[in-house]
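Question (not urgent): is this output format expected?
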Amino acid sequence: MFKIWGKVLKDGKIISQTTYESDEKFAYSNFFEYLTSICAEMDIATPVLLKTHIFSYAKYNTVSFIPRDFMEPVDFDKLVLENMVL
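Got this back:
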């Protein structure tokens, strides 16, 4: 079981947040599925997922997506995904 906390930040403040939960074992190969579910829940565009994003999440338990990581214009400063340790 794992949880991922997704939050959208604008001017240093959280404007939207959600929690993704799954009873399955966490797999980095499914990270894009987790990301798309979180973005769909918050009704925002899904960013481009690079290998460096996955490495950042693996090493620091957090990853940030900035506006240049999105193909569409976004009206926030950052999308942050954090691992919620159970």
